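Hi there, hope your week has been kind to you so far. Thanks so much in advance, here it is.
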Amino acid sequence: MKIAICASEMVPFAKTGGLADVAGALPLVLEKKGIDVIVVMPAYACVKKVKKIKFKKISAGVSCAFIGKKIPVYFIENEEYFNRDSLYTTKNGDYPDNLDRFAYFSHRALSVLKEIDFHADIIHCHDWQTALVPVYLKTVYAGDPFFKQTKSVFTIHNIGYQGLFLKEEFPKTGLDWNLFSMETLEFFNKVNILKGGIIFSDVINTVSPTYSREIQTKEFGFGLEGVLQKRRDSLFGILNGLDYDIWNPATDEYIAKRYSADKAEDKSKNKAYLQKLCGFPVKDTTPLIGIVSRLAQQKGFDIIAEAIDEVCRMNIQLVILGAGDAKYQQVLEQMMKKYPKNISLSLGFNDPLAHAIYAGSDFFLMPSHYEPCGLGQMISFRYGTIPIVFRTGGLADTVTEKNGFIFDEYSKEALVSTIKNAVVSFKDKKKWPRIVRNAMNENFSWDAAGEKYKDLYNKVLSS
C-alpha cells in the first residue's frame, strides 16, 4: 500500500497546533506497519532551520529530507509564498494571499507525485489548506492515467477553520466557475475550501468518534452540518494518539523527579517543585489545578472567567500557562493580583513549564466548549494528573468517572460543582490513589490509532 500524506504543517519542521503532531506521528507508525509512505508539505522559512536534518535538492522548487527509517518528506518551495516568518498569519490576521498559497501548494503536491513517480493508492489530506487536492483529483486530474487508481482521505482536525474567501477570489483555485455552486464550493456567496474537501474526497474522518457525530449538528457543524450529514456513510472518527516517547514521567528530562505508575508517590516531589516555582505555599494537602491551553472561548475560558473567583475561595491553587484572547488574559491577571497565593499565570508557551505542570498538578482543567480530540487530557493521564472536562469530542471519548471528572452542562455552575466533587475525591485517601492508578494505566498510543488508519485505508481501497 502506498500512502502520500499532504499537510500544511508537521513536526519537527513546522507547527502551530495539533495538526503538526498528527502529521509527524502518523507516517512513523504507518512505516512500522509496513506501509510505503511519503509526506508533502510547504518549505516554510522555519523548515531549513531544523537541526540534525539533511536536506537534498530534488528538482526546481522541490527539496527532500528523511524521517523515521526511510520516509521521504518532500518540500514544495516558493520564496514568494512560503519564505515568511509565520505559517498562516501576521499579527493583523491571516495572510491576504492564503488562497493563492495553498491552491499553489495543492496543485504542486500532485505534480510532485508524478515527478517522483509515486503512484499513491491514497492521498491523505489534512484540513482546509490541502482540501483542494481531492477537488483537483476529481476535476483537473480526472482524465490523467497517473491518478486513475488514486483515492483520497480527508481529515478534519477542527471544522471551525474552513478556508473562507471572497467570491471574487475563486479564479485563483484554477477551477471552472460551475464548481462555485451550493452543491460544491460556494458557501453563503463565499468560497469554502474545506467544503470542497468534504464533497470531493472518497472518505472523510475526524480526530475522535464523538467529534465525527458532533460536527453533523447545528451546534458544532459551523454551517457544514448539512453537507456532512449527506456524507455520513463516508465519515469516520479516529482518536489521535499520543507520543509516549515525549510524554512519559519515567523518562521526562524536564520534571523535578521522574516517576511511574509503580512509583506514583514520587509525583509529590514534582508538586512541591511546582508550588515553589509558582510562589505558592508548599502543602501536599492543598489541591493544585493545572491549565496548559490557548486562552480562548473554545477552550472554556468564558466559564473559567465566570467561575474563577468562586474557585479561588475553595482553598485551591491554580497554575495557568498559555496565551490568547486579551480579555481572558486581563481577567486572569486581575485574579492573580487578588489571589497571589492561589493563582500563577505564565503567558506565552514554555515547554519545560508545561511538563512541570503536567507532572506537579493534582488536576488538569480542560473545560473546552468543543474539542475535536484533545491531547492535554491524554498527557495528564500519563502523569497521574486527573482531568476535569466538559463532555465533548475527544474528551467524551477518553475521560470517564474512573479516570477523571466530567460535566454535561456547559455552565459556570456545572464547572464549579465538578471541581468541588473532584476536591472531595482528592481528600479521600482510599479513592484518590485508585483514580490516579486508573489514569496512569490508560493507553492512547499511536500504534492503536495507526491500526485504525490502516483499516480505513483498506476500506477506501475496497469500496
The first helix runs from residue 18 to 32.
